[in-house]
Specification:
2 domains, 58% helix, globular
């Protein structure tokens, strides 16, 4: 048995008459799934529907997959050990990385990170349960999503399932903020055992997907911010001490920044240098692009993506006895470039997410999600206003599907506009027709 191409629920590989490679079947299942299509209606930074220009979860996922696929191909030629296939977790298949990138945001609810935060608060405070986007990915891929002939999700190959698993932990264990819900973790853990994966280590494919997600976030979201006027490309904006203060605050508050060893550098000086360098590059390109802002934006984005993607490499992780996908310079981890990327990610965060208009939208989003939750939380009343196929599914699976988790699944699967539509049907004085299709 090929451990990388095994499927947990399909009776046997090769039972279909189609002449497609296993990972190509995974790709088809993903892009033809309703969960993938719904990403077009879910917020990336700006609310879905804010304008034709701005990215949604769908366009973001497509961009991550493109970057990851190209980097995977380059690394496959650059590192001879990959061709030896010594371990199933130490391989880089471009199609696997592409599939994992397409699926990495399936679990995000409507209204971006605010939706995730609110659902987690509701489940934790009332039921001692958790909600987390990465864990919800597996609820969708392994259970909620349906395909013909299967009652257990999309039944993807082991390689793609582990390629999505950038947090190889059980979320329900004490102290975990990221991971996989216990039920799905049992099956993911089974694959990891078959592969003899080291504890708390991700496959190279999952690591590459994760890094390319950060590359996209730190470049594309800034492009959107410049286009929206939230990031002003002038010295008054970039030399404001409050901007540096906000960057430092967000970097310091981020618990995932420990590996970047910020204590070894002057954080304020590095943030200032990064902002100065970014503005200087813009000013140079602005002249080269004949003072066209749109061309300059695209060129800035392209150059930074190229800079980051071109420095991705693989090093030995002696602490874990494994390999690490990271930025590499002269055979060692390039911490300076990693810190620079983190500064740009935080620039997008403090200028976009923290903008007061975005905060108003997020407050509105929180109100809607909380009131939707209140409408559905009582099983007797809630089942009267749920689509019939959802209540039928609950009846079939209620022996291992608690009502709060069921409602979280339902709300989290909504797009921004559908959540607003249901909210308006329940709380607005009048909206549309009762015969509109859900």
């Amino acid at each position: 048995m090929d451990l990388r191409k095994m499927r947990l629920d399909e009776p046997a590989i090769g039972t279909f008459s189609e002449e497609r490679e296993e990972y190509e079947r995974d790709y088809a299942r993903l892009i033809q799934s309703p969960a993938f299509r719904r990403l077009q209606g879910k917020s990336q930074v700006f609310g879905a529907g804010s304008g034709d220009y701005y990215r949604t979860r769908l366009t973001h996922s497509l961009e991550v997959s493109q970057i990851a696929r190209e980097v995977s191909r380059r690394l496959g030629k650059q590192y001879p050990f990959l061709a030896k296939r010594e371990h199933p977790g130490l391989l880089l298949d471009p199609t696997v990385v592409e599939c994992a990138s397409l699926a990495h945001d399936f679990g995000h609810p409507p209204f971006g990170h605010k939706g995730e935060e609110v659902l987690n608060q509701l489940l934790t405070e009332e039921y001692g349960m958790k909600y987390e986007g990465n864990a919800q990915n597996y609820r969708i891929l392994m259970f909620l999503e349906k395909r013909a002939g299967s009652g257990s999700g999309l039944d993807l190959t082991a390689s793609v399932l582990l390629g999505v698993n950038k947090y190889p932990f059980c979320l329900d264990d004490p102290g975990r903020l990221k991971g996989v819900y216990r039920e799905e973790w049992a099956r993911i853990s089974h694959i990891r055992d078959l592969w003899a994966m080291p504890k708390e280590c991700s496959t190279l494919e999952a690591q590459l997907m994760d890094l390319c997600d950060d590359i996209a976030y730190s470049t594309h979201d800034i492009e959107d911010g410049i286009r929206a006027g939230k990031i002003q490309m002038n010295r008054t904006f970039f030399e404001d001490d409050r901007l540096i203060d906000n960057l430092i605050h967000e970097i310091t508050a981020d618990q995932g920044n420990g590996d970047l060893r910020w204590h070894e550098v002057d954080m304020r000086a590095m943030c200032r240098r990064a902002m100065d360098d970014y503005l200087e590059q813009w000013e140079e390109l602005y002249i080269q692009c004949e003072r066209e802002s749109s061309r300059t934006r695209r060129e800035m984005k392209a150059r930074w993506v190229s800079t980051f993607a071109g420095r991705v490499g693989i090093i030995d992780d002696s602490a874990k006895g494994w390999k690490r996908v990271t930025f590499v310079r002269e055979g060692a981890e390039d911490l300076e470039l990693l810190r620079t990327m983190e500064i740009l990610k935080k620039l997008a965060w403090v200028t976009l997410i923290k903008d007061f208009r975005i905060q108003r939208l997020q407050m509105r989003s929180e109100i809607m999600i909380r009131r939707l939750w209140e409408s559905f939380r009582d099983p007797e009343r809630g089942r009267l206003i749920l689509p019939p196929d959802w209540t039928e599914s609950f009846e079939r699976h209620k022996s291992h599907w608690q009502w709060p988790r069921f409602i979280a699944d339902y709300i989290s699967g909504m797009t921004d506009s559908y959540a607003s539509k249901v909210y308006n049907e329940l709380y607005a004085s009048k909206t549309g027709s009762i015969y509109e299709m859900d």
